[in-house]
Design brief:
Layout: E1 5-9, E2 16-21, H1 25-41, H2 44-60, H3 62-73, H4 77-102, E3 105-109, E4 112-120, E5 123-127, H5 135-147, E6 150-154, H6 160-172, E7 180-182, H7 187-194, E8 201-205, H8 208-218, E9 225-229, E10 234-238, H9 246-258, E11 268-274, H10 279-289, H11 311-326, E12 330-333, E13 348-351, E14 367-373, H12 376-383, E15 391-395, H13 399-408, E16 413-416, E17 428-429, E18 441-442, H14 445-448, E19 450-457
Parallel strand pairs: 5-6, 5-8, 6-7, 8-9, 10-11, 10-15, 11-14, 13-14, 15-16
Antiparallel strand pairs: 1-2, 3-4, 4-19, 12-13, 17-18
Organism: Glacieibacterium arshaanense
Family: Belongs to the aldehyde dehydrogenase family.
Enzyme class: oxidoreductase
Amino acid sequence: MSASELESIDPCTGETVWRGAAGNVDAAVASARAALPDWAAAGLDARIAQARSFQEVVRDQADQFAALIATETGKPLWETKTEVASVIAKVDISITAQAERAGSRSGEVAGVRQALRHKPHGVMGVLGPYNFPAHLPNGHIVPALLAGNTIVFKPSELTPAVGEFMAQCWTTAGLPDGVINVVQGAGDTGRALAGHDGLDGLLFTGSATTGAHLARQFAETPWKMLALEMGGNNPLIVWDVDDAALDAAAALVVQSAYLSAGQRCTCARRLVVKDGAWEPLIDRVTGLIDRIIVGAPFDQPQPFMGPVIDNRAADALQAGFAGLASRGGDVIRMLARRDMTKPLLSPGLIDVTDVADRPDSEMFGPVLQMIRVPDFDAALAEANNTRFGLSAGLIGGDAALYDRFWQASRAGVVNWNRPTNGAASNAPFGGIGLSGNHRPSAYYAADYVAWPVASLEADAIEGSIATGLRA
């Protein structure tokens, strides 16, 4: 395979899923630019009809779509079916959000007609992640198309087949040529797209490291839109849980930490518990960990979680886990790998209370770090002891304690007695700090795919100067 060729691998079998050449960024941007005038002028009703046609195509091909996502990412089929369902649901949600947040308004101010309308930015780049290779880029693409933008979409180099399939669904739905352009490639292709003079904005989902590079790059072009949706070092506090609720609390902890093999940006990374009162909870958590089925996406019975995306990611996670253990971490459940040729990891749990200078980084996989604290003030301090600010959760306590937690939390998603990775698509989604740049996605994506134009308008010419003129 030449340097210009790409290949995606089934993480469970090692077999090739997709192979192809890296795309031409210049050609993709030129195609999007050429299609922009007609698409922007088509009108909102026509663009809504096109989105609904895409929705029906995806619905018709849902089983094939889910199977492809499962094959290329290794996620269980039950989970990839929910991802395809989210792609379908995004259309209706985006239509509602567009009307509410970016629709036209009119009124009157001092006898003058006032109007508010929105215009598309133009050609928008979309950089997609591998963990939700359909749902997350789709969360940018649908609102951007409704607003009248055209798209250059670079899927993750680890999931090119899913990106290509989703774009083909738009083509099957009758989207005009050039409105969506897929450009496959690795990091160099992403950098070329982000820095292209013909781009009017970039919508990114991925790591904080890449997002920080993009923020520096776009500092030179403040007139271009940049929406960054990044990860988190997310805290989950468990506090004052009755014995009768410990099993349910443990289930929420396991869901928060290990859903999608820990490859959700909202997964809990740090479990904060009360020193001296944590053992009953952890007994139940480890009981669930020991029962978790880790396997391939089409296995029966269905696994709770599949592999991480590839062996490189698995190697990095194991090295990070070993590093915590070597610096004083107490391993409760080892991050184990039964076959070193495959990235299938069992859930890891480690007490890092006595680890000095714990790294404030996102371990993007099935690793949960437990931290014991003496009181709730210390729990709040530990929860906020991060440069990230995506998701935070509290399990237990009463409404007053939750209100205290909510007020103190520095996160864009704050949940009570629910998993940290529970988020509604009809609400804004995003974080602060290293988790984002105040451009929340999901329902608020309508805000960053169009720009508002405020107008004062009159049908007749009326003007006079009453003050400051010589007779």
